[in-house]
Design a protein that fits this description.
Elements (H helix, E strand, L loop, with lengths): L2 E2 L5 E2 L17 E4 L4 E7 L3 E4 L2 E15 L4 E13 L2 E14 L4 E13 L4 E7 L3 H15 L3
Parallel strand pairs: 3-5, 4-6, 5-6, 6-7, 7-8, 8-9, 9-10
Antiparallel strand pairs: 1-2
Length: about 150
Amino acid sequence: MPRKLAEGNVARFEPPAALPLDSPKAEMITSVGETVTIKGELYAHEHVIINGTFEGTISAPDHGVAIGPHGRIEGRIFAKTITVLGRVIGTLTVERLAELRRTAQVQGELIATDVVMDDGALLQGSIDTSKPDIAMRVARYRADRDDPA
């Protein structure tokens, strides 16, 4: 069941209810709060929700990244899916689906197989639907090479 956010928006990253949290197959979520500012690189092996400010690179090639309505990103994002409700300046590389909700403000390049834009969403830049598989292979290689985990 999707969780309601401010302004009636929906976040699609809920852990499966049937799996206990200590199960090795349970989906985990990392959330960055509205008052948090991060500068650097984030490598995630779980879903990520950014409600604060992030400057740098977010790499979650096997999971989803959501930018909440108060989220502000400047940099690059690599993910299986991306949902934007806030502001992004940079490059978004998405293996599957990029969703720009009505409050989204994106400036830069969007590379994704499928793109959904709500009425009111703002995109200043380009959309490339021809090369997300190549870009994601590069992102996975970089994440495996650079990930300290």
